[in-house]
């Protein structure tokens, strides 16, 4: 099996993941690796294979069977068999017909019309956060803007009380880390909190999404207690971690390209196609969530045996030069085709909301401020140690009001 000079998920991997992925694509279509918790996995790296894997019914998502396989492999490796709460029975961890039913119950709350109705509130929250950013002083855009915006949006949607939201930010940041001493306690805390919140919503329903999910649909179907908790966890994690990464990664890209920053500020209509390409060039998701093989599966000429855990390398596939000409370059005229929201029946239900938040956030940022000064060399911006999420730990900038230019470090 081909080996990279830097192993997948090793300590050196995170900040050089794009470089590692490029070598892996050259060497083969699928690679064996070991997750930091000791779980052996297979990683699909090329676009065509990745796209096919995302729709292959032999690559299954059923939470019960997946948990059984993962715990067996962890036990065989002498590792802890405790799994994160995200590996529970929600629509992302289910196959048809369970997936069909679970997605239908949630889809009624995520129609295009309902998402568009959120635009004024998202714009208002964005403006409030930007108003609070200091001009001329160092500021971490991740801490002060990229995360607070989607956290506020998803918290308002779910009906999470205002005093609890800061704690959720810390829990979810630890939850996605590949360090079990952080992720497992955070997972337990989230389960405990949401269990109590669901009980409170059931006793006194409000106008929020979590309350709505406790109520039966028009045909009398409703989420079981286990399904409701799992869905709440999914919405909380996926509902802001991905969007926060989109905003932070996008801002990092723009701050290194002041000419593009200025163009977006002068031509607001160019923001949506640029955001679409940012989703491909430095998207918010590094790997898909886990699947398992229900039988031997051929991937690009390599046979993955039955009962193996498979991850699809989304950011690697999005940089595959066999699919995208000049793949490393941002081309707003390229259109979609990226896999950042997945593909097939598990295509991200929240994609319209993520696009809406990304476009509003980056659009307001470039109009409000002149091209920002990056306060560290770009190569010193650290990536978070998360197999699933592709995000940065911090983005230290100095901002000036629009029209007041500052030198921009690390421009290209």
From TrEMBL:
Superkingdom field: Bacteria
Pfam families according to UniProt: p450 (PF00067)
InterPro entries in alphabetical order: Cyt_P450, Cyt_P450_B, Cyt_P450_CS, Cyt_P450_sf
GO molecular function: heme binding; iron ion binding; monooxygenase activity; oxidoreductase activity, acting on paired donors, with incorporation or reduction of molecular oxygen
Catalytic activity, EC: 1.14.-.-
UniProt key word Cytoplasm: no
Keyword list, A-Z: Heme, Iron, Metal-binding, Monooxygenase, Oxidoreductase
Entry similarity comment: Belongs to the cytochrome P450 family.
Protein's recorded name: Cytochrome P450 107B1
Taxonomic lineage from the root: Bacteria, Bacillati, Actinomycetota, Actinomycetes, Pseudonocardiales
